[in-house]
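Why do we bother with a discrete structure alphabet at all? Because it lets us treat a fold like text: something you can write down, compare, and reason about line by line. To make this less abstract, here is a complete entry for Mitochondria-eating protein. Read it the way you would read a sentence in a foreign language you are learning: slowly, and without expecting to understand everything at once.
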Amino acid sequence: VRTWSPARAGRVNASNRACLVARFGFIYAQERLHAETLLRSYICDMETVQRIIYVAAVESFRAAKMAFWKIKLRVKETLALDHIGPESLEVAALDYIARHKDLYDICQSVESVICSMSGNPKLPCPPDVDFCVIRTLIRELCCLAFSMQTLIPPLDIAHGVDGELFNRTMYYRSCDSDFTSPFVAYHVWPALMENGTVIVKGEVVTR
């Protein structure tokens, strides 16, 4: 029988958090660049490629969070029937989902992201480009975002707006930026947040 204790739960949460933050950094440093290479086979404009990948990251987190919210409701309803123990129903549900990731239909989220991107009128993209070419990146981001929702508190990304003031505590400037400009032209990668605090900086282009 698995016993529960606040200390054990805290250690597990901290360990999972560290792994997920590291995974976020790896996707930025490796898998994002691979996705850029794939898109550059179809699109010569680097800004367009970077905008596509940023939107893919934002949409992946949105889809995964929505799926997580629906699953958590179902799990809480089921556990509430015979829930006993020192932890709250909320904590019990998060723990259950963390241990049963197969509850998540990740393929459905991936298709939702691709569909949303294809219908995005603000996303500059040649009509002959299929966003399925970056399906692997989207899948990894959806999986990561879903797992981040099982943490206490959950991790999320910041949603940037073109033209906003550059925030050096939240973003790095890309090497091709105008370092004298105080405004964000577009976002390359989102910042990772925890309770409103930046955990990992994102990347922007200022001009």
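What the structure line is telling us, in plain words: The helical segments are 6-40, 46-79, 89-99, 106-118, 135-148. Residues 6-154 form one domain.
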